[in-house]
Amino acid sequence: MFWYIVKSKLAIDTQLGLVFSLFIIDMKESVFFVILVMLLPVKGQLKTGFYSSSCPKAEDIVRSTVESYYNKDPSIAAGLLRLHFHDCFVQGCDASVLIKGSSAERNAVPNQGLRGFEVIDDAKAQLEALCPGLVSCADIIALAARDSVDLSDGPSWRVPTGRRDGRISSSSQASNLPSPLDSIAVQRQKFAAKGLDDHDLVTLVGAHTIGQTDCLFFRYRLYNFTATGNSDPTISQASLAELQALCPKDGDGSKRVALDKGSQTKFDASFFKNVRDGNAVLESDQRLLGDATTRNILQNYAGSIRGLLGFRFDLEFPKAMIKMSNIEVKTGAEGEIRKVCSKFN
Q1: Where are the beta strands (DSSP E) in the chain?
Q2: Upper half-sphere CA count for residue 87 (Cβ side, 13 Å)
């Protein structure tokens, strides 16, 4: 990609690492162009097909591994997608969430329910046997997230690769992960801190179309929302009765409930319709309807013509995922390529 700006401005080719300084000199009726070229080091960047020469079967191995687990348990798709999200929101997309240890990121309270570690470990073991020391755990997570969406009848996309694995993993860094209790203002701040805007926020929350959550994280909405025994008034009466039946007041808090009523294994736009109609399970999801900006985006996805705007979500979700998967990535000589994803080299 070239950017040419006249009058002594820099023009940058980020692929070749060239910096051009372009001058235009007017001498009466003649125009002379002088191009000065300097070679400058440019930080490595992600690119699609990063392993096409060094490990051509890398993406196929990740895909076949995810598919084998998905065929046994389709809910693993949501787990792998969430794993990628949690990894990227803490220190960037560097597989720091995979490290084991009492003080590691993986052991932080917001990460206690994460799933899919065994899928990543399986794919990594196969890749180390075929291409030792080449494919990062961070890239495996990103590829597995894409494959999970695709297997769930959602969109697919070309994943830029070339990430390297981080050398730091701390549970204290995970305190700022988005929470189901967050207001729109807090959600917006947390996403903006990672370079993501309101459109990205709503689009990425759409991943809840294949998600699940524990009764523990939303039961307060059903029985004691205002500390006076009332339910959350934003929940539709039909959904309130259904959720109370699934999650009794003194029942098992670890019981899993689908976040997308009626379409929990299919990656589609029905989640947005459920939020629009007062059927969101998490309070943070329902709050998307209470803010003018996020409401407009949500309603566009929900649509009124069956399938039309669901297709639009299929187009926008990959863009948001690629943007998120670029958060604070480590490339070039940064970080390392782990031999085992759960421990540093």
Answers
A1: 10-13, 18-27, 30-39, 212-214, 256-258
A2: 35
| Sheet hosting strand 18-27, strand order edge to edge | 10-13, 18-27, 30-39
Tokens of 256: 């899993």
User: In degrees rounded to 5, what are phi and psi of residue 221?
Assistant: -70, -25
Distances (CA, A) of 105 to 85, 177, 181, 277, 340: 13, 11, 21, 36, 16
- Encode the chain (345 residues) as per-residue pLDDT tens digits: 333 333 333 333 333 333 333 333 333 334 433 333 333 333 458 999 999 999 999 999 999 999 999 999 999 999 999 999 999 999 999 999 999 999 999 999 999 889 999 999 999 999 999 999 999 999 999 999 999 999 999 999 999 999 999 999 999 999 889 999 999 999 999 999 999 999 999 999 999 999 899 999 999 999 989 887 899 999 999 999 999 999 999 999 999 999 999 999 999 999 999 999 999 999 999 999 999 999 999 999 998 655 454 558 999 999 999 999 999 999 999 999 999 999 999
Q: If you compute the radius of gyration of the chain from its CA atoms, what whole number of angstroms results?
A: 23
Residue 162 token pair: 């070339």
Which residues are known catalytic residues?
A: 86
Nearest to 270 by CA among 287, 258, 284: 258
DSSP assignments along 156-208, one per residue: --PPPB---B-S---GGGGGGS--TT--HHHHHHHHHTTT--HHHHHHHHGGG
Token pair for residue 112? 């206690």
Distance of CA 324 to the CA centre of its chain: 5
Name the nearest CA neighbour of 318 among 190, 150, 151. 150
